[in-house]
What does this fold into?
Amino acid sequence: MMAQRRRMLMHVESGFPAKNTLENTAWKDIALVAAAGRAAEYWAVGDKKTIAFSSAVFGSLAIEVKILGFDYDDLADGSGKAPISFGMVDSFAQRKAMNATMTNAGGWGGCTLRPTLIAPYFPPLKPRSAAMLSRR
It folds into this structure.
């Protein structure tokens, strides 16, 4: 018990949150840990977090994201690597095609689904995770 209290105090004194599951960690704390380059010390690839919406997006009131990797993806501005890469996990109740040919031709950047998804998806996420998100 005393060792646990010491570890918690150490985190408070260092300005870092106590280690917790990704699900139970606030986005501001995730951003703080990620910016310090310590995300892999706190969480693991595959850890998940639920994000609730105030109204349905593609038929869903919440989505689940999971950690895909650490310091792997290039930042859009070319300034380095993203501390944490997240991916959605079968998140929306309504299925949508990437484009009219029902393929991934043109990739994410050129698909017709991208603007349809970004318009409703990013604004509800911004208050919670603005420091963590990068549009690519």
Notes: The beta strands are 48-57, 60-70, 84-88. The first helix runs from residue 2 to 14.
